[in-house]
Amino acid sequence: METNEQRKKAVRAAIQEELEGFFVQVQELSEGDLEHLEEQVVKTSQQMGRRLLEGILDSRLREQRPVARRQGSCGHRQRLVGERPKELLTLVGPVRFVRPYYQCLSVPTAEKSCTHGEAPDDALWGVHERRTTRGVQREISYLCGRLTFEEAAESLCRHVPLGMSARQALSLMRPVGEALASAEDRQVKSLQMEAKQARNQRREERQSKQIERLYIELDGVLARMRRGSVPLEKEERQRKGDVYREIKAGAVFRAERGPKRSELVPGVYVDTPEPDSMRYVARRTAKGGFGWLLYQLALHGGLEQAQQVVVIGDGAPWIWNLAAEHFAGAVQIVDLYHAKEHVWEVAHAVFGRGTAAGTLWATQACSLLEQGHSEALVSAIEALPPIAPEPGQARSCPERAVDYFTTNAKPHALSALPRPRHAHRQWYR
Ligand SMILES: [Zn+2]
Questions:
Q1: From the CA of 415, how far away is ligand 1's center (Å)?
Q2: Residue 76 Cα to ligand 1 middle (Å)
Q3: Which of 19, 87, 127, 219 is deepest in the core (most CB within 10 A)?
Q4: What is the pTM of this model?
Q5: Looking at per-residue confidence, does 7 or 111 come out higher?
Q6: CA-to-CA distance for 268 and 259, rounded, in angstroms?
Q7: Band of the pLDDT at 153, cuts 50, 70, 90?
Q8: pLDDT higher at 294 or 265
Q9: Diameter of the chain measured on Cα atoms
Q10: CB atoms within 10 A of CB 405
């Protein structure tokens, strides 16, 4: 990196100026005011950082003057039209500097002259058609992975002296999301190829089973989407506001028998997830390919090394279909929370929300569920006074609940739990 004497001198002078400014500010603070002193130190160091970056990036401090003519990236001869300013958003705040700017020379024979212009320095530093550094992009990506765009932009601006809006965060994330999605697609494609070629081979090459249990949990959720981020349905175009789309989400984690006994089943110990083994995947249902993504995540999580595989879901048919396709032989468990939701829906539909009779019935029905008496539960639902189906439904709420508990219940004694060869279902406890 070119740091000639002229450049060093200019940077030193700029830093010296900041330092003097710092002493002036500190003079005004009272003794013991650490809070404001710290604030001033942070501000000054960011300001010094900006001076350092500007000192290195500014082309006016270069020993050699920029060339007058060059070959442009479009292939044309270009001429220097001057040193033009650029603002870059960095981890120490906005940095302003100038760099040589070139424009294509008009070719007299051509029908239309090329209007292309470019700054070679932008390509050199990797900021061509960009206003943010990689550092800023990395930070905002990290935050956007955990927070909403609004929260991410706000969090970044608390630590970095930048003004960033949720919309800017979104447009910075777009290429990251696209790159991640295409990487996922490539992985899934190669996995599908591999599966086709080596289906039989894979079975024989089973590795040693060092993992006690691998859990795979999946669910569908309706996510609120920004208008314009997805193609709209006809009726959605006619009304205002955000739209909702189904997202399929999955989690994979390893677990082994923990020290805690089950409160519901004697002799059963509750599994403890292995720390840091939890991995997630989510994809909009309309995009397709969720099953393969989850399968890939499970492979990375140790699917082939697991003594037992457990699939946990809410009982929706797509979950069991996916499990049958990708995790044949896994123990299928309906989680208690989702199952209880169905019980409460019946109570609300038959007795009304918040009624004492409904609460009493649901509490007793849920305890049947907890004890694994799903046949008794089905009888309890069938014994309720019949109600009419809601508009647009062919079957009433209790009838659908009977379907749900009958389809999902294939009761097994818990002692029979380690039986990975056969697919069987039980209530999660
Ligand atoms: Zn050109």
A1: 76
A2: 5
A3: 127
A4: 0.64
A5: 7
A6: 10
A7: very high
A8: 294
A9: 92
A10: 25
